[in-house]
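Fig. S4 source data, part A: sequence.
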Amino acid sequence: NSNAGCLVLFFLVFLLIGGGMFFWMFLRPAWQILQAKSWTPATARILSSNVSSSRDSDGDTTYGIDISYEYSYNGRTYQNDDYDALTTKSSGYEGKAAIVARYPAGSTVTCYVNPRDPAQAYLSTDFRSDFWFALIPLVFFVAGLGGVSWGLRLMRGGGKNALPHASWQPRPAKSASVPSTQV
């Protein structure tokens, strides 16, 4: 059924985009956060600390955590600016300002260094509240998955959820009976 095929393709877009965004926005950072919990703690010195801001295409202001720090690991000094695995900017200024206030320039804190790649480090290995917004693409993924499976069911014969088949046939014309009159 071509209608079911179009339905599958339509929902496949939701499935792929939702799945890709869910992976990059949630699964990948979650995995990095969980891995970072086992990284090596090191002493770091905060070089600069502020809330960055930028305007998006709609003119709305978004904010990010902009903290630069240096640390030593195995006799080498590194510089980094990754607060955690979540690198997104969002509209919540207060939460980011509270984080930045805990890391004033010149202060000494603990960072967590990736022993396999010492240039990678985070100041935090916790899940921030912003992180849960990354679950939004899951809605598109689930809708796409449901739509694709429904469309595939329709293509296989569908049962009670099937779309009606477009089997329209013209009705034969009724012959018009014209009364005959005799003279």
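Fig. S4 source data, part B ends here. The helical segments are 2-36, 93-101, 136-155.
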